[in-house]
Amino acid sequence: MDPNVRPETMERITSPELAQAFIDEQIAAVRNQVGDKKVLLALSGGVDSSVVAALLIKAIGDQLVCVHVNHGLLRKGEPEQVVRVFKEELGANLIYVDAVDRFLSKLAGVADPETKRKIIGKEFIDVFAEEASKLEGIKFLGQGTIYPDILESKDGIKAHHNVGGLPEGLDFELVEPIKLLYKDEVRVVGKALGLPDNMVYRQPFPGPGLGVRCTGAITRGRLEAVREADAIFREEIDKMDPTPWQYFVAIPDVKSTGIKDGKRYMGRIIAEVPGINRVLWDFSDKPVATIEWE
């Protein structure tokens, strides 16, 4: 049986009881796979990696080493939040790596979305390999891969940093305890693990981060524009009741004519974010559209 194909008989996780059964099953599986070795986990602070971190802490405790890489493609305030929540509040063994300049130099002038994904994925693995070389007993790489990542990486729909973006010769064996779950199931499992609501129900965020929401070649100026616009958008949408399940800002690689001096601005993003002179709304359904623009 293909381990990357969800069995047709697998029951959808919709209750705390089913979530706990899944957790118990995965704790046993992780302990059997890992033994007394250490696991290096990419902890972005997103739903998927947070749930994996909580699950692995229950399974192997201090054998888990969490690494948070600030690649410069995160949302506003996220690096600070990750350190505060996981290191200070949850007491995780967390290593913080400031790799902003490293990532942005590799991405300079690169416009093709798949190439950007490959660069970001490879650089992630390189960073983890470097961190692992400083530690003893690291044999495994934990990842927050979920089932849509696998499905969307088939037949070239898009490369995913946890699936199609991994380079050959990976030195770690993968630990992917939630790779057969859909996002709604991951949230139920996260609640059962005791994670706070603001973590379990936070917005989904792609591994390549704002790198695939800043379409075309990435510059620091365009990154800051989409980061600020995204923060404003999330702040305003969070005032709705109920809030949409997923929403985000992308900045297209186009220029348009705008009028500034002497004219009234309409909307916070246009008024507050330098370089933005118009806002468009995308109401496309999935399918045929996917979540990300790239």
Give a short synopsis of this structure.
With 294 residues, the chain is of the alpha/beta class. It has two domains: 16-204, HUPs (Rossmann fold, 3-Layer(aba) Sandwich); 210-272, GMP Synthetase, Chain A, domain 3 (2-Layer Sandwich).
Give the arrangement of secondary structure elements:
Elements: H1 16-34, E1 38-42, H2 47-60, E2 64-70, H3 78-89, E3 94-98, H4 100-107, H5 113-133, E4 138-142, H6 147-153, E5 173-175, H7 183-192, H8 197-200, H9 220-237, H10 268-272
Parallel strand pairs: 1-2, 1-4, 2-3, 4-5
Helix pairs in contact: 1-2, 1-7, 2-7
Report the principal-axis shape. globular
Oligomer category: single chain
Total strands: the figure is 5
Report the C-alpha radius of gyration, rounded: 20 Å
Classified in CATH, the superfamily of the largest domain is HUPs
Averaged pLDDT: 87
CATH topology-level fold name of the largest domain: Rossmann fold
State the CATH architecture of the largest domain. 3-Layer(aba) Sandwich
Poorly predicted runs of 5 or more residues: none
Number of helices: 10
H-E string: HEHEHEHHEHEHHHH
